[in-house]
Amino acid sequence: MAIDLYYTPGSAPCRAVLLFAAALNINVNHNLVDLRAGEQLKPDFLKLNPQHTVPTIVDDGFSLWESRAIGRYLVNQYGGDSELYPKDPKARAVVDQRLDFDLGSLYPKFAQYFYPQIFGGQPANEEHLKQLKGSLDFLNTFLEGSKYAAGEGLTLADLSLVATVSTIDTAGISIAEYPNVVRWYELVKKTAPNYEEANGKGLKMFKLMIDNLKLKTEL
């Protein structure tokens, strides 16, 4: 039985869940949620997720939201001996730290800088850009001498972080000054299972949305 995924393709956290599912070879039923139309506020969805956020999954009646929690659940429930979320406590702790860094620093710093511009028509805030660059610099440091984000193998951390970094890149924010990030990004694009289907397609939709919003702002 496939897991129901409620998502919007342009969302980095939603694409992270698609990457998790692809890496674990889990089938999902795709249920699009139109946030701009308020579909996340409908009573049926609120029963699944009172915080009315995407991504949300439903697995045999069990509902869960927050992409990184979903990733951990999928590995624990269906991953077997998968190294996506290592069982060794220290190795797992590094993966958790990187996931929390994405949740608490990198993605919020991007959202704080970029979304007011694209959705609110506000001018770029240079202090917010500085903070985003600071988070990218931390990621660059984490990757020093490390093949992947949490060691020598692909983990949930890479799949979550690549959803964010690819969004930053697609938004037109250069990552060129972070050579470890650039090297890692190219590696994950090549080695994450079904990367183009799970992440690339949604990125194209995100880019189209950005272009359309910019066009409206410029009119």
UniProtKB/TrEMBL annotation:
The keyword Manganese does not apply. Keywords: Transferase. CDD domains: GST_C_Delta_Epsilon (cd03177), GST_N_Delta_Epsilon (cd03045). Residues 1-82 form the GST N-terminal domain. It holds the Pfam family GST_N. Transmembrane segments: none annotated. Residues 88-208 form the GST C-terminal domain. GO terms for biological process: glutathione metabolic process. GO terms for molecular function: glutathione transferase activity. Belongs to the GST superfamily. Homodimer. This is Glutathione S transferase D1. It comes from Papilio xuthus. The lineage of its organism: Eukaryota, Metazoa, Ecdysozoa, Arthropoda, Hexapoda.
